[in-house]
């Protein structure tokens, strides 16, 4: 007796079907991985951009605050002092704001004044300052610098004066106080740091006349009305075109001592 074989095809997966399924699965896994990696890279770039923006906000607010105080010596009006008294002033006081070789120097009073009630001595370093002035806010002035002791009398008002420096060095914005010690790093990834000055036509005018300039002579310091600060940031400051984050450019204009109308 013989049996007939069934004409139905064999059921299940063959080798071809298995290979196709594995290929499709691999493509799906690669697609999901690509989406995940792209999302992670986008998140990292957004975080880096936000960090650059925060650095810009911090530095611009700090520098603009120091610039607004430039040339302020408390109650003392240097222009009203007798010529013999003015001759005692350090030469740095003639230009309370200067910018040369990518170094910004700002001279201003420390916001802590001391009214003397008993005779004694004081030093500028006692107040974290570079110079110490003792004055009656009218026509008397005595001055000492650094660790030099200054004799003080009852009725004197002490005005500590400090010098703050900012400079760009190897794409790092650095600062130093009172022209001593090493510069300390504030922020990294700085591609550019520049200042321009808005000058009035005369020392009596209150509005900026003409275009901003890059340099100001000490004799023209009284004509400075505003300062334009420009900062550029990049995750690759040495070659901004090769950076992953687009070059971040920030500009801030600061008025000095409320000189503008």
Helical amount among residues, as a percent range?
10-25%
From the alpha-carbon coordinates, what is the Rg to the nearest angstrom?
33 Å
The number of distinct helices, counting runs of at least 4 residues, comes to 2
Structural class assignment: alpha+beta
Overall geometry comes to elongated
In angstroms, what separates the terminal alpha carbons? 119 Å
Low-confidence segments, ≥5 residues, pLDDT <50?
Answer: none
Taking all residues together, what is the mean pLDDT? 85
Count of spatially separate domains: 2
Give the biggest beta sheet. 8 strands, antiparallel
DSSP summary, beta strand count: 13
SS strand fraction: 25-35%
Q: Tell me the series of helices and strands, N- to C-terminal.
A: HHEEEEEEEEEEEEE
Q: In a few lines, what is going on in this structure?
A:
It comes from Halopseudomonas bauzanensis. This protein is of the alpha+beta class.
Helix-strand layout with pairing:
Layout: H1 15-68, H2 83-86, E1 97-100, E2 103-109, E3 114-115, E4 120-122, E5 131-135, E6 141-145, E7 150-152, E8 157-169, E9 172-177, E10 184-187, E11 190-199, E12 224-233, E13 248-255
